[in-house]
Design a protein that fits this description.
By secondary structure, this protein is of the alpha/beta class. The chain has helices at 2-5, 7-10, 15-27, 69-74, 118-125, 148-159, 184-202, 219-231, 267-281, 296-304, 314-319, 323-337; strands spanning 45-47, 50-52, 56-58, 79-85, 98-101, 106-109, 134-139, 165-169, 208-213, 236-239, 260-263, 287-290, 309-312. An 8-stranded parallel beta barrel has the order 3-4-7-8-9-10-12-13, surrounded by 5 helices. A 3-stranded antiparallel sheet has the order 5-6-11, with no helix packed on it.
Length: 355
């Protein structure tokens, strides 16, 4: 409750400053806790060799440098994805680069993979208590690198001994040329390099590899991506990253800022491409739904569109840290309403429908 009451104060600050204060508080153990809470047993599932107590996690971008994952797990999240981390530290794009659109429940960012690098992130992850919860690592390429597959391989090598799963991020709109890696040829080369790096470090028992894709894809582009993912036996996909589109419904004063749009306006397009991905994969690999989730009903819509797990970030800015637990509790109620004995029964049941 106290954390939720602090939201208006944080929103008086520059968005990036407010975020840094939040991360520092969580890393210092000053955040709220959902201790003692037991999720509805129907929400649990095993994916990627991991036991998720419920489907709700925190997306990459929140804890870029693996500083606050322990505090974030205490909020009640089933999993936290740290990063995006690149081999070398980089400052990202000039500030200001993060903009709130409160009237729209949205944020625009053009951060540009600002992070302290793989070495610093690995040092922090190496100290984690694995029994405290599931932590994934999101890796990317440094700006301007000539051989991006080498950067992704380096990320996998660094994170394979430390993370429960690894996400290959080729979909941020804020690094020039990054989304071009979603084309079948470059994507195949990159994923093969990532798999080889995982085998090199962890043998055949390494962490799952996931691919995070953009929402701004034509049907043919998505078909090409899914074809490569299935061909290369990648373990799962995250659908989706932020969008470069600007819906005409946006009201915020900063709606014209360059960067990736997240939050409520991303919900419909990201859910539509999630359903397409589920149909194209025929449910053969787990999908994680991200984009615009701010309630149990929104999370349930993602699940019915094909997501086994869901991630949120932007909604925490507007609705506070208690949102993670509220969404999980609402999901339990919705499963009961629909007579589902397990969340897996709801996955993809409406993937053929338009969200």
């Amino acid at each position: 409750m106290l954390a939720d009451l602090a939201l208006p104060l944080l929103r008086c600050l520059d968005p990036e400053t407010a975020h840094r204060l939040t991360i520092r508080a969580l890393s210092a153990g000053l955040g709220p806790s959902a201790g003692g809470w037991t999720p509805d047993a129907r929400l649990g599932q095993s994916l990627f060799g991991l036991d998720f107590p419920h489907p709700v996690g925190i997306a990459a971008g929140f804890d870029k440098d693996a500083e606050a994952f322990a505090g974030a797990l205490k909020l009640g999240a089933a999993f936290v994805e740290v990063g995006t981390m690149t081999p070398r530290p980089q400052p990202g794009n000039p500030r200001p680069r993060l903009f709130r659109l409160p009237e729209d429940g949205a944020v625009i960012n053009r951060n540009g993979f600002n992070n302290s690098g793989l070495e610093a992130g690995a040092a922090r992850l190496g100290q984690r208590d694995r029994s405290a919860g599931i932590v994934g690592a999101n890796v990317g390429a440094n700006k301007g690198v000539e051989t991006p597959e080498s950067d992704y391989a380096a990320g996998v090598r660094a994170m394979a001994p430390l993370a429960d799963y690894i996400t290959i991020n080729v979909s941020s709109p804020n690094t020039p040329g990054l989304r071009d890696l979603q084309a079948p040829g470059p994507l195949r080369d990159l994923l093969r390099a990532a798999k080889a790096a995982r085998t090199e470090v962890a043998g055949e028992g390494g962490p799952a590899l996931l691919l995070k894709i953009a929402p701004d894809l034509e049907d043919a582009q998505l078909e090409g991506i899914v074809g490569v993912v299935l061909e290369e036996k990648i373990d799962g996909m995250i659908v989706s990253n932020t969008t470069i589109a600007r819906p005409g419904s946006l009201k915020g004063d900063r709606k014209g800022e360059t960067g990736g749009l997240s939050g409520v306006p991303l919900f419909e397009p990201s859910t539509a491409i999630l359903a397409k991905a589920y149909r194209l994969t025929d449910g053969k690999i787990p999908l994680i739904g991200a984009g615009g989730i701010d309630s149990g009903a929104a999370a349930y819509t993602k699940i019915k569109a094909g997501a086994s797990l869901v991630q949120l970030y932007t909604a925490l800015i507007y609705k506070g840290p208690g949102l993670v637990r509220r969404i999980a509790e609402e999901l339990g109620t919705l499963l009961e309403r629909d007579g589902c004995s397990s969340v897996t029964e709801a996955v993809g049941v409406e993937a053929g429908a338009t969200p």
